[in-house]
Amino acid sequence: MLELHDGALNVPEILTRWYASESASNYGAYIPFVGTVRDEDGIEGLSFDVYEPILTSWFDAWSAKVAPLGATLKMAHSRGDVLVHESSYIAAVFSPKRRVALETIEQFVEDFKASAPIWKYDLRAGERLYARERSTAIAGAGLLGSEQ
Asked: What is the mean pLDDT of residues 11-23?
């Protein structure tokens, strides 16, 4: 399940809903990861642009990859502005075995940072400025890989 939300994520609501949706699925492990906007370099927050078709394809490929392990992935990400100390990213793995869940969440989050078609902007003094130094170009994306 992939969810996109406008603005900051409601972490308690999302995690509670995900847990409730899988509570009868006989999983032995539920491992969430919550990403929060840090107070650094004088930013007021971050703003995100998401290219949904590629993100959906990337997420579907991951879901297919972990299905033979008996695992299920869930992910939520913000579009638009997210202020400091708010959440912009949540990922979770449900699995019959803890080792599968632990390994999967680490690989999934790292691949997300390297591969997801999401562009990050700093919010400073009411302006939205491309955060080039903290962004990762997507291999083979051409113009989508970086902004001028």
From this structure: 95
